[in-house]
Amino acid sequence: MHHRPFLFACVVTGLLAAAGCSNLSGSLGSPVPKSVDDAIAQITSKPAYTHSRWGIVVVDPSTGEKLIDREGAGMFVPGSIMKVYSTTAALKAFGPDYRFRTPVYATSVPRGGILAGHLILVASGDFSFGLREQSNGTLAFNNFPEIDHNYGDVGLAGPALLKNSDPLSVFNQLARQVRAAGISTIIGDVAIDDRLFNNYDGWPNGVMAPIWINENVVDITAAPSSVGQAAVVDWRPKIGTMRLASDVMTVANAAQAKPLSVKADANGTLHVSGAVAAGAKPSLTIWYIQKPADFARIAFMEALRRAGVTITAFASGSNPTHILPKDYRRARMVAEHVSPPLSEFVKVILKVSYNRGADLMVCLLAVKSGSRDCADGLGPELKTIKNLGVSPESTIVFEGAGTGDMIRTSPADEAAVLRSLLGVPWGKYVHDGMSIMGVDGTQAENQAGTPVAGHIRAKDGTQIAASPSGQVYISAKTEVGYIDAKSGKQLIYGVFVNDVPIGQQGMMETFSGVDRDLSTIAAAIQQGY
Hints:
Number of helices: 10
Strand content: 15-25%
Helix content: 10-25%
Structural class: alpha/beta
């Protein structure tokens, strides 16, 4: 199993200046409102930030004037605000209206209901593939404190399955289309064509693949029963070749509970362990699907059988890539799924801070440039953001999600891109995709019920680092976005803090405290200008 570093790509709200600083405008012409200066000084001078480094820019996009610039050109560990760059580059390359088209081909003409050839689903890189699709053409997402299921393995409270979602929905739809096309029996085999790009495991967030099922994770939930009895364990998506074994027990209270963990044995059985407290909400963990094409093939074959299609091939073993044709000019398309527009995928990536969704954008940029190697998409991404104002000397990209302490960017670079996006037609989809403070996404609870709610569009980032000795610290908490100030003026801001040690109260308490501080600073900016 691929292990990710312990990180959160969620929450945050503005951060700033060096501890105890004042006169944030420095040599700039416009003075910083006293209320903003005081809020920043009060928060950044806290003992918790004695060893931390702050950076901030606040820009008037109509003039380009920097209203605040405190180490704005400095290189910082950014966290998930790098998703602004990867989604921006994808929107530029493909356009917001681009749709993922996933066809199914028959390699010969069916006769009398019998396909004496093969049935092939051609993967398009659609990461939702039905999971998040709504009847109105949008993609759904969870709002904090319900954290997206993709974060079910990082120990956060609140990860939740997407309501009313079905990871097998598109497989079932395609299977019904195949049956409606007159195919009742397949004498040949069924395969997934995942040649859009090579499966890639060079980034920290799991295997990148062109075919997706449940976003290529198995969701495993454990609900309490009676104390001392086995917990009620369930999982999805279920396919016939996968087995799950559980020793998760129900314990008396939260102090006795243990996080869920899962390991796969040589036979593919998933072994789940842990303990859940009586009366608690179900716990969630995830297991990364290691061979997505193999998994998807079995899911598709089972869907075909549910739709009334007889298949002579066995629904087990590896995806039979040897039957894939060189091209599909002589094949017949018998089914197709068309996704919602790319702008909806960008929204999900930004609202829930979806790491592998952002990495997928880089893989697609590679494909657009003529390569099947995901890493080759980083060049086009850097070119795009450089043309939008980023300095390649202060921004270093390693992947699309912002995972890891080697990545760098500056507040000024992020602000430059956000300002440039206001001048291009597809830039609005980055703006609209960001979480609305106090309303939705990772920012749903920050400033909720205050005059600030609904007036800040933000992409936040967090990076947690741990040493082999067991020391843990917040290496980055960042936020960038758009502020509709109390005066009616629109502002662009980028606020970064690096290197916050975990306090004696513990990691989650420290994290929550920093988060509250950031929200307070962002609110001060919105109210003060």
